[in-house]
Amino acid sequence: LAKAQKDFTEQQVExxxxxxxxxxxxxxxxxxxxxxxxxxxxxxxxxxxxxxxITQKSFVLGAINTTELILAQQERDQxxxxxxxxxxxxxxxxYDLRNRTLYDFEKEExxxxx
Length: 114
Prior knowledge:
Elements: H1 2-60, H2 66-101, E1 103-104, E2 109-110
Antiparallel strand pairs: 1-2
Helix pairs in contact: 1-2
């Protein structure tokens, strides 16, 4: 009975170790993905802002109608929101990884609580 309990405990520890490693890998993959998404959203937000500025100037000159101006403004606002959400998701994943590993990646040391 004792040997069976020992074997069961060892298997349970091994499963939990594999689960932990899988969770850490998924968080690292998520951070890598969000890093790329962040770069992309920054570029999209920059282009949307430039488009709005050009559209606004064209509107003042009477070259385009109000609808085009409103669409450009909505696209700019949507791009800004997407960027903000991506930044939030990135930092959430970063601190989830930090919490899960109990490691401070900036200071390159283990986290300690006093």
